[in-house]
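Bench notes, afternoon.
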Amino acid sequence: MDNAGARIWNDLTTRAANDNNREVAIVLDDEVVSAPRVNSPIPSGDSQITGSFTIQEAKDLSNILQIGKLPAKTIPVQESVVGPSLGQENINKSIISLGVGFLLLLVFMVIYYSSSGLFP
């Protein structure tokens, strides 16, 4: 990478590393080929992907990365942040559904067992 590309890559990987080691997708022909996790910022243009790959998987990924060396911009397609309020909302809905389910079961049991002499 040239200096401008290395600076952009540094900014991108710094944000990904600071955001709970997020992944950076490697996309070729609108298909995600790999999505390695960013463990730490990459200040230079040199990157390394580690993992438990077979020799064939490593060769395939290397070939794909060699093919993808065409001039291309790094464009964030989507970013989303999930706050703690979403988790609290799910907890509240779960408690309400538990209460409603318990009440429905209680009503069913009262109706069914109060008329147990009517059904053979």
